[in-house]
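FORM 7B - TANDEM STRUCTURE REPORT

SECTION 1: FIRST PROTEIN
SEQUENCE AND C-ALPHA CELLS:
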Amino acid sequence: MRACTILVLSLLLGGCDHGRHFVAMTRSTATFTACTPDPRILCEPNAEKLAAQIAPLVPPALAIIESKHFAHFAGPVRIQVYASPESFSRYSGASTGAAGMVTRGAVHISPAILAHPDGPAEIVAHELSHLNRALQLGPWRMVRLPGWFSEGLATWASGGGGPAYEPNIRHAIRNARHFEPIDLQPWWRPFQQPPERMSWPVYYNQTRMFVRFMHDRDPAAFRKMLDALGRRDTFADAVGTWYGQPLADLWQAFLASLAS
C-alpha cells in the first residue's frame, strides 16, 4: 500500500514524467519470450538480435556488480530487451533517448545502448547496479536513496564515465558548478534530475567521482555503509555511523581534495 500511495501521489505532483512511468507499469509483457540461452533475458518480438548481443555481457556484469556492492542479488534477475527506443520507452517509462532503465523489478534495455559512449557492457553493468540496490532495499527505501548516490555508485561500479572527462569535471567543481549531495531523496521527487543547466554526462561523472572518493577514503567504511543500507538503515545513519562524520563533512573533504 505504501508503494501504491507513493506512486499515485508522485503522479499527481510530478506531471508528465511520473505519468509516463505510471502508464508503463500497466503494460503487459505477455508476448515477451526467452530468446537466448540465458533465461534471465526476455525479448520483445523482433528484439532477438539485440538480445544475442547483450547475453554474453550479463554474467561478467553480474560478477562486477556483486563484487563492487559486496552483495549478491537479493532476488531474481530479469532483463527485458526491446526492438525499438519507442517500445522501450512505452514499457519502461524512460525517454526514447535512454539506453537502459530499472523499473518493475527488471532491467530494461533499449537499442540505444549500441550507440551509448560508455558502451553496452558498462550500461548493462550500470543498470544491474540499480537492480541490485532495488532488490536489496525494496521500492520505498529505493525511492528515498539519494539519486546522486544511486547514479554515482552505478557509474563507478560499472566503469562508466571515464578519465577523459575528469579534467573538465574537476574544473567545473572547483568553480562551484556542481551538484549538492543530499542524504535523503524527497519521496515526491523520486526520479532524480541533474541540477539546472547540467548535462547528464557531467552529473554522472561528478557523482561517480564523489562515490569513488568515498570508497578510496575508507574502503572498509564504504563496505560497511553498503551493508548497513542492505539492512535497511537510512543513508544518513549509514554514512554517519561508519565514516564517523556526516555526509556534509565528507563532501567538503572531497571538494578540498580537488582544490589543488
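SECTION 2: SECOND PROTEIN
SEQUENCE AND C-ALPHA CELLS:
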Amino acid sequence: MSSNLATKLREGTKKSHSMAENVGFVKCFLKGVVEKTSYRTLVANLYFVYSAMEEEMEKHRQHPILSKIYFPQLNRKKSLEQDLTFYYGTNWREQIAPSPAGEAYVQRIREISASEPEMLVAHSYTRYLGDLSGGQILKGIAQRAMNLSDGQGIAFYEFPDIADEKAFKATYRQAMNDLPLGDDVADKIVDEANAAFGMNMKMFNELNGNLIKAIGQMLFNTLTRKRTKGSTELATAE
C-alpha cells in the first residue's frame, strides 16, 4: 500500500509555505536584510527544536513508520552547536533559552512522540526538506548579509554526509510516498505539517521586533552619514 504522502504534503502545505515566506523576518531575509542578533536567536531556538525532534526520532528508530524515514545524516543538532559557538562563544549553553514560541514547538514534538509518534513525519518533512531546499538559498544570503567567511556561522545549512542533495531529496520523498499509511493517518500528518509551519511562523514573528530595530538603526546610520557628508561639503564651500 502506498500513501503518496510526500505528494499530499506538497499539495496540502502550499498555502502554509506561502504564508511562512511572507512573514516579515523571512521576507527581509530573502531580500538580504539579516540582522545578526535576530539570526543567532533563531539559531538558538532551532537548536532546541532539532534537539527534541532528533531525540524523539532516535527513540522511535525501530517504529514501523518512522524507521523508513530515519536518516541520521539529516541531523542538525551538532551543526547548530557549531553555529552557536560561533555566535555566542564557547559558553553558549549558559546564554540561550527557548523563546515562548520555541518552547511551545518543543512541547508539541514531545507530546506527539508520546501519543502519536507517526506525526513526527510531519515535523521531519517540514524542517529537513526545507533545509535541503530553500535553506540552501538562505545560506548564501546569510553569508553575504552578515559578511561571513570560511563557512563560519552557517554549519546549519551544510550536509557533509549527503553527497548529492537533489538525489537524497528524491530518495526521501519516495520513502515517504511508500509509507504504509491509510488516508486518515496521511491526512492527519498533513494537518500536523501545517501546524508545524504555524509554529515556525510564530518563532519568526518573535524576531520581527529585533529586525525592525535593526532596520531603524541602519536607516539612522545612513542618514547620519549623509548629514555628516553634507556638513563637510558645506564647510568646505565656505
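SECTION 3: OBSERVATIONS ON SECOND PROTEIN
Residues 216-220, 229-238 have pLDDT under 50 and may be disordered.
The domain at 5-208 is CATH 1.20.910.10 (Heme Oxygenase; Chain A).

SECTION 4: SIGNATURE
Preparer initials: ____
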